[in-house]
Amino acid sequence: MPDALRLRPLTPEAFAPFGDVIAAAGQAEIINSGMTRKFADQARIDVECEGGRPAVHIYRSAPTALPLTVTMLERHPLGSQAFMPLQDRPWIVIVAPPTDIPDRGAICAFLAHGLQGVNLARGVWHHPQVSLEEAADYLVIDRAGPGENCDIHSIERPLIIRSLETERP
Amino acid sequence: MPDALRLRPLTPEAFAPFGDVIAAAGQAEIINSGMTRKFADQARIDVECEGGRPAVHIYRSAPTALPLTVTMLERHPLGSQAFMPLQDRPWIVIVAPPTDIPDRGAICAFLAHGLQGVNLARGVWHHPQVSLEEAADYLVIDRAGPGENCDIHSIERPLIIRSLETERP
């Protein structure tokens, strides 16, 4: 029977080893004659390595029913990759630190609410974004350019996410 | 009485003089073992001028009731600026070509649906994003870095948007 992977709430502190949480939180600047609150500089976009440039995509993602078995992780060794949900639906972010191969014991799964995105730091192992119940779209900001920018690693003894219940932070 | 500015539907063709429409349209690449459709390379991010870097913000925008009087436009001479709505709510994009000062007769207003974003090309004159009925959040991708990157221009004889009815494309 696979080991359980428990979800954790997505917070900037808990996610710090993996990158940035993108969310309208904290101090805002007031712009546009008072009509707009600007939550500035949410993500360290790191895409210049080996002649890269920023690229913007939309990922339309089919839903996944739990339990979800985590059998693989991927990483982008040449740049960061940000995901921002576009329809205010909760989703799951699964990550591991940027070691040479994923450290199975260090894999973390976060439950994000629908107005939270993440920016994965360069080289951070991650599972494809997990949409729940309904298909969902994400704005993705990553690196385009020369070079091989995707490694995939199988997880020998898969982990399983059984429920949306989260551990205490 | 101010001249009327009629809304047009937002399409890539109509918006081409001003930048890119960001939307899950056209050909998609299938990735993530079939779970994700990738609509690639939606926006020409142009932020490197004078030592700039890409920056990501969330703009939380108060709603505007129609009629809306357009009394000013702004532009960013050093970089592009992309807006993507985060709650699937329609919004209005008001732009003018990147001439030295805005050409009042060339001001265009587009009604975007909630899964359409835009990337304003460098120097394109624009009004702050207009949210309708409810407050709304936008992911913004623009340029951070040295230099003066915001010009504001008053429109001497304001234009007025009276309704959400759109002209034929």
TrEMBL record, chains A, B:
Keywords: Lyase, Purine metabolism
Catalytic activity: (S)-ureidoglycolate = urea + glyoxylate
Protein's UniProt keywords contain Transit peptide: no
One GO process term, biological-process aspect: purine nucleobase metabolic process
Keyword flag Lyase: yes
GO molecular function: ureidoglycolate hydrolase activity; ureidoglycolate lyase activity
Quaternary organization: Homodimer.
Protein name per Swiss-Prot or TrEMBL: Ureidoglycolate lyase
